[in-house]
């Protein structure tokens, strides 16, 4: 699966060091999901942790690999993590929308 994420400003340096992520053009990431490393984690436990504490610094400790960071509107940052769900034995993507160190919203699919 190949996904491109566009940003209005240069991509954060954190993203360039992740296998499967390249900068296709200034501010545009090309992500090869098959090459991105994943974290083995229970998705139900991840959801419970986020609902219990919206602090991004605490939640990111659950992941064993760095997330792919992309700047978003109004000072937000979007972090994407590839997760191998230990409950279902399937790969999913966790997307966290963060501003000021707090998770404003999240999506897991």
Descriptive notes:
This protein is α+β, with helices and mostly antiparallel strands and 109 residues long. The protein has one domain. Helix content is 17%, strand content 44%. It is built from three helices and eight strands. The chain has helices at residues 13-16, 43-52, 56-59, and strands spanning 2-6, 21-25, 28-32, 39-41, 68-71, 77-85, 90-99, 102-108. Strands 4, 5, 6, 7 and 8 form a five-stranded mixed beta sheet that branches. Strand 2 and strand 3 (28-32) form a beta hairpin. The protein is flat.
* Global mean pLDDT: 84
The end-to-end distance, rounded to whole angstroms, is: 14 Å
Number of structural domains: 1
Structural class: alpha+beta
The share of residues in helices is: 10-25%
Low-pLDDT residue intervals, each spanning 5 or more residues: 1-15
Q: Would you count the extended β strands for me?
A: 8
Quaternary class: single chain
Number of helices: 3
Radius of gyration: 13 Å
**CA-based shape:** flat
Order of helices and strands: EHEEEHHEEEE
- Strand residue content: 35-45%
Describe the main β-sheet briefly: 5 strands, mixed
Give a summary of the structure in a few sentences.
This protein has 109 residues and is of the alpha+beta class. It is built from 3 helices and 8 strands, in the order βαβββααββββ.
List the helices and strands and how they pair.
Layout: E1 2-6, H1 13-16, E2 21-25, E3 28-32, E4 39-41, H2 43-52, H3 56-59, E5 68-71, E6 77-85, E7 90-99, E8 102-108
Parallel strand pairs: 4-6
Antiparallel strand pairs: 1-3, 2-3, 5-6, 6-7, 7-8
Notable features of this structure?
17% helix; 44% strand; disordered N terminus
């Amino acid at each position: 699966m190949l996904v491109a994420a566009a940003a209005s400003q240069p991509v954060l340096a954190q993203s360039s060091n992740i296998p499967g992520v390249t900068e296709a053009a200034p501010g545009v990431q090309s992500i090869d999901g098959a090459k991105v490393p994943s974290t083995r984690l229970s998705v139900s436990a991840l959801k419970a942790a986020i609902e219990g504490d919206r602090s991004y610094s605490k939640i990111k400790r659950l992941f064993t690999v760095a997330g792919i960071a992309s700047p978003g509107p109004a000072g937000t940052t979007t972090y994407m993590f590839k997760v191998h769900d230990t409950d279902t034995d399937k790969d999913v993507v966790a997307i966290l929308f963060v501003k000021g160190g707090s998770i404003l919203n999240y999506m897991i699919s």
